[in-house]
């Protein structure tokens, strides 16, 4: 009898439900006979705030916390904001509430992929973004006066130690799977800011415990250049929250767009898996949204669940789903409009299903 895994599902705003539906169907297909995924749909998002005055109900947060994993679609609507003008971001609220300190952003380019870069070598690296502090430390609480405004950047030893341990584990796992050489690069601005010099010192301390993993450092402005000029040179990079926020979009850009960019936010007890892109309300309901980043996020969820529950068959299922997506991308079988094709959302999902 296959084990039951509780998956909290946030359908999101805009195109969110349109890309979530085929993803759930593919997840059920690829896990058949391995595990039973019990999906529970939970209310949250900008639309829920607009209609009910609450972006993330406590009952939804409690249910998400109690689940085995959280699958979250695109959230937010530009027209719905808090009174201070900031956007509705329950996904960030989840990160903070559940202490999801490791933001995982894979960057991959395969032969045939519609990348703006003219490269022939494959690209496969992972950006790990600290997701609970850094320049997001005072999110919603920054000081604003008539004459100036300020936010506070915070880097702590406790979170940094967990973050770096996570990065080294990922580099070791990628090395064992033949996906990387076993190297972690810290991206910082230690030449200017004392907080980043402190972060670098913590990183170097952590590296002493992993002599089998190579390490180096890069300033964030230089890394923005390197990601464009030699993206194939990297394995695992780890950085502060805001730097990671910016570099992850650059990573999506060199992949060809946010429609190919999955992500995970992982803590000690919980994890959220979601596409990097927004809710695109301008195309909602037209059936043309790209579901591939959402599907890839679902594959990442299976891989995380497999490691957590020691289920290698589930990891293999996640790998099959991931490979099916990249087969569709590399062959150009059913590309949606955002990445140079004409396929509908369902066309793209059907192509992944066929590849499986």
Keywords, please?
single chain, 356 residues, alpha/beta, Isopropylmalate Dehydrogenase, 10-stranded mixed beta sheet, 18% strand, NAD, EC 1.1.1.85, ICDH/IPMDH, oxidoreductase
Fold and architecture overview:
By secondary structure, this protein is of the alpha/beta class. The protein has two domains: 208 residues, Isopropylmalate Dehydrogenase, CATH 3.40.718.10; 118 residues, Rossmann fold (3-Layer(aba) Sandwich), CATH 3.40.50. The chain has a ten-stranded mixed sheet, with helices on both faces. A hairpin with a 4-residue loop joins β11 and β12. α1 packs across α9, α7 runs parallel beside α8 and α10 packs across α11. It starts with a strand and ends with a helix.
Layout: helices, strands, pairs:
Blueprint: E1 4-10, H1 16-30, E2 36-41, H2 46-52, H3 58-66, E3 69-72, H4 90-97, E4 102-109, E5 123-130, E6 143-144, E7 149-150, H5 157-176, E8 183-188, H6 194-207, E9 214-219, H7 220-229, E10 236-239, H8 241-255, E11 262-266, E12 271-275, H9 292-309, H10 312-331, H11 345-355
Protein name: 3-isopropylmalate dehydrogenase
Domain Isopropylmalate dehydrogenase-like: 6-352
EC number: 1.1.1.85
Q: How would a crystallographer describe the biggest sheet?
A: 10 strands, mixed
Mean pLDDT rating: 94
> Which CATH class of the largest domain applies here?
Alpha Beta
Question: How many β-strand runs?
Answer: 12
GO biological process, one term: L-leucine biosynthetic process
InterPro entries: ICDH/IPMDH (IPR050501), IsoCit/isopropylmalate_DH_CS (IPR019818), IsoPropMal-DH-like_dom (IPR024084)
Domain Isopropylmalate dehydrogenase-like: 6-352
Keywords: Amino-acid biosynthesis, Branched-chain amino acid biosynthesis, Leucine biosynthesis, Magnesium, Manganese, Metal-binding, NAD, Oxidoreductase
């Amino acid at each position: 009898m296959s084990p039951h895994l509780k998956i909290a599902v946030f359908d999101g705003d805009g195109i969110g439900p349109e890309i979530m539906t085929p993803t759930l169907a593919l997840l059920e297909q690829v896990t058949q006979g391995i595990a039973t995924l019990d999906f529970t749909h939970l209310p949250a998002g900008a639309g829920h705030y607009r209609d009910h005055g609450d972006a993330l109900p406590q009952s939804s947060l409690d249910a998400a916390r109690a689940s085995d994993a959280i699958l979250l679609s695109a959230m937010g609507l530009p027209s719905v904001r808090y009174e201070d003008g900031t956007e509705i971001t329950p996904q960030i609220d989840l990160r903070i509430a559940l202490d999801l300190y490791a933001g995982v952003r894979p960057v991959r380019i395969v032969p045939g992929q519609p990348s703006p870069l003219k490269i022939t070598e494959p690209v496969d690296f992972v950006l790990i973004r600290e997701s609970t502090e850094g320049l997001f430390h005072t999110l919603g609480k920054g000081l604003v006066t008539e004459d100036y405004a300020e936010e506070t950047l915070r880097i702590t030893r406790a979170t940094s130690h967990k973050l770096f341990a996570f990065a080294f584990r990922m580099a070791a796992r990628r090395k064992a799977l033949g996906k990387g050489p076993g190297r972690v690069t810290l991206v910082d601005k230690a030449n200017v800011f004392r907080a980043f010099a402190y972060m670098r010192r913590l990183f170097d301390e952590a590296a002493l415990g992993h002599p089998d993993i190579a390490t180096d450092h890069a300033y964030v402005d230089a890394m923005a250049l390197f990601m464009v000029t030699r993206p194939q040179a990297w394995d695992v990079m780890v950085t502060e929250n805001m730097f990671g926020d910016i570099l992850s979009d650059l990573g999506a850009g060199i992949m060809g767009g946010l429609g190919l960019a999955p992500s995970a936010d992982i803590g000690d007890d919980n994890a959220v898996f979601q596409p990097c892109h927004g809710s695109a309300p301008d195309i909602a309901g037209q059936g043309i949204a790209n579901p591939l980043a959402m599907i890839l996020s679902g594959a990442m969820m299976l891989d995380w669940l497999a490691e957590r529950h020691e289920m290698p068959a589930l990891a293999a299922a996640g790998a099959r789903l991931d490979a099916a997506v990249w087969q569709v991308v590399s062959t150009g079988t059913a590309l949606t409009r955002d990445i140079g094709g004409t396929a509908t959302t369902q066309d793209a999902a059907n192509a992944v299903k066929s590849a499986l």
